[in-house]
Amino acid sequence: MTSDQSSSLNSFEQTTGQPVTYINPELTPTENAKPGRHVHLQFGYGPMPVTTTGTSTANNKTIFFFDIDNCLYHKSTRIFEMMQVKIHDYFKHNLKLSDEEATHLHMDYYKTYGLALEGLVRNHQVDALDYNSQVDDALDLHAVLRYDKPLREVLLHIKNSGKFDYFWLVTNAYRNHALRVLSFLGIGDLFDGLTYCDYARAPIVCKPMVGYFERVFELTRLSDTDLKRQWFVDDSALNVRAAFDLGVGYVIHYVEDPADLAQLKKKSDFEKYYGGGSGEEGRRIFILTDFQDLPHLVNRV
Ligand SMILES: [Mg+2]
């Protein structure tokens, strides 16, 4: 059992900032020997430590915040679709529904609450962590996520640029899923901390809720005036807008699919968010269509 799995499933407030180490038992010793397979987060799930002077570990620090799912790996892995199948099965077997009823209720809860899980917890007293173990943790990620050397090199390139003090992950998944993804991709040694969506909390607070971002900034000890120096990349239009509206200075929307980009450009507020010029100090959300171009974007801005 890893140090993470053996720790109790506490709520957000009880995170300690202690380092988190995770060795994926699904990987063979040979696979685990490659750089980045072992996950090590020096500040764990936060908060970042406070120095004796009462300030955070670095004054005027700059953090690069990274989303994980469909951002650090390609949508073509179809992990989202795999997850939909697991959720369907969960509805069907745990609530004893037909396929048709399961589909209907799943969609109903998704539309009503934004997360199917929220509907299950509210209306069926489902244990959110049991759901997580049967849905996210049950995904066969080993079959679809490969060791990603080019991704590793992109992240290392940015890390070695000296432009950033810390790399921090922000995910809507629960922490187990995040740690597994990092180990499969081979990037577990490149981040300082992780903020996850705590399914054990009710109501569930996730991106793009303001409360989620506020929690992230609290855990990384950033004040409102620090936000303009921070960087954030995510594949969700809602999430990047939320971060932008909160004042994060460098927000990057990763749009992998040209069809999604075409749709985005049709939105009535596209100019407002992505056009620049009219915004405060010409701020705008940057669009990234190929993750390999991230170092270039970082250098250009
Ligand atoms: Mg994502």
Strand content: 5-15%
CATH superfamily of the largest domain: HAD superfamily/HAD-like
Please state the second-level CATH architecture of the largest domain: 3-Layer(aba) Sandwich
Average per-residue pLDDT, rounded, comes to: 90
Oligomer: single chain
Q: Roughly how many Å is the radius of gyration?
A: 19 Å
How far the N terminus sits from the C terminus, by CA atoms, comes to: 44 Å
Q: Give me the number of helical elements.
A: 14
**Helix and strand pattern:** HEHEEHHHHHHEHEHEHEHHEH
- What sort of overall outline do the alpha carbons produce when their principal axes are compared? globular
How many domains, as an integer?
2
- CATH class annotation of the largest domain: Alpha Beta
Q: Which percent bin holds the helix content? A: 40-55%
For the largest beta-sheet, the strand count, sense and barrel status come to: 6 strands, parallel
By helix and strand content, what is the structural category?
Answer: alpha/beta
Q: Uncertain segments of ≥5 residues (pLDDT<50)?
A: 1-13
Are any ligands bound, and if so which? Answer: magnesium ion
InterPro entries: HAD-like_sf, HAD_sf, Pyr-5-nucltdase, SSM1_domain
Protein name: Pyrimidine 5'-nucleotidase
Organism: Lodderomyces beijingensis
Pfam families: Hydrolase
What does this structure look like?
With 301 residues, this protein is α/β, with parallel strands linked by helices. The protein has two domains: 228 residues, Rossmann fold (3-Layer(aba) Sandwich), CATH 3.40.50; 66 residues, DNA polymerase, domain 1, CATH 1.10.150.450. Helix content is 41%, strand content 10%. The chain has 14 helices and eight strands. The strands form two sheets. Strands 5-4-3-6-7-8 form a six-stranded parallel β-sheet, with helices on one face. A two-stranded antiparallel sheet has the order 1-2. Helix 11 links the parallel strand 6 and strand 7. Helix 3 crosses helix 4 and helix 4 packs across helix 5. The longest helix is centred in the first third of the chain and has 16 residues. The N and C termini lie far apart (44 Å). The N terminus is likely disordered.
